[in-house]
């Protein structure tokens, strides 16, 4: 996929680790959807702390069994593919923040299969 280099779009989705879609963690569902739609890839980041949609501090504490932490999913691909993904995403995200920005991919490499 060296052809990914050039002007592309970065889609960043801010959700909670507690968010679910059809019974599974939302971030896992999003990764499966990225694969099904043939996007270049995605990365999921779990934050240590954040302030969510209701101005509520979400942070890690050792005393809680369940940790409601911020999750960020980043996806980079061509504009057309991201725009198509956004149409599906609108049906899935109940609460969270979705941002889109222009980026320039300098290099996208992977090892060749032997």
How is this structure best described in words?
Belongs to the UPF0166 family. It comes from Desulfurobacterium pacificum. InterPro entries: N-reg_PII-like_a/b (IPR011322), N-reg_PII/ATP_PRibTrfase_C (IPR015867), UPF0166 (IPR003793). The protein is α+β, with helices and mostly antiparallel strands. The protein has one domain (about 1-105): Alpha-Beta Plaits. It is built from 2 helices and 8 strands, in the order E-E-E-H-E-E-E-E-H-E. The protein has helices at about 25-35, 80-90; strands at about 5-15, 20, 25, 40-45, 50, 55-60, 70-75, 95-105. Strands 4-7-1-8 form a 4-stranded antiparallel β-sheet. A two-stranded antiparallel ribbon has the order 2-3. It has a two-stranded antiparallel ribbon with strand order 5-6. A hairpin with a 2-residue loop joins strand 2 and strand 3 (about 25). The protein is globular. The mean pLDDT is about 85.
Residues in helix, %: 10-25%
| The CATH top-level class label | Alpha Beta
Shape: globular
| DSSP strand tally | 8
The topology string of helices and strands comes to EEEHEEEEHE
CATH topology: Alpha-Beta Plaits
Low-confidence stretches: none
Q: From the helix content, strand content and strand pairing, which structural class follows?
A: alpha+beta
Overall pLDDT metric: 86
Strand arrangement across the biggest beta sheet: 4-7-1-8
User: What share of the residues does DSSP label as strand, in percent?
Assistant: 35-45%
Distance between the termini: 16 Å
**In the CATH classification, which architecture applies?**
2-Layer Sandwich
Pfam families: DUF190
InterPro entries: N-reg_PII-like_a/b, N-reg_PII/ATP_PRibTrfase_C, UPF0166
Family: Belongs to the UPF0166 family.
Protein name: DUF190 domain-containing protein
């Amino acid at each position: 996929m060296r052809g990914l280099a050039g002007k592309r779009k970065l889609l960043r989705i801010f959700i909670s680790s507690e968010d679910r879609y059809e019974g599974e963690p939302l971030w896992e569902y999003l990764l499966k959807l990225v694969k099904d739609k043939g996007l270049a890839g995605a990365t999921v980041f779990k934050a240590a702390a954040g302030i969510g949609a209701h101005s509520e501090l979400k942070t890690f504490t050792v005393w809680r069994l369940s940790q409601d932490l911020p999750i960020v999913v980043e996806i980079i691909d061509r504009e057309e593919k991201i725009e198509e993904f956004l149409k599906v995403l609108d049906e899935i995200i109940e609460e969270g923040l979705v941002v889109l920005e222009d980026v320039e991919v300098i290099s996208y490499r992977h090892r060749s299969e032997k």
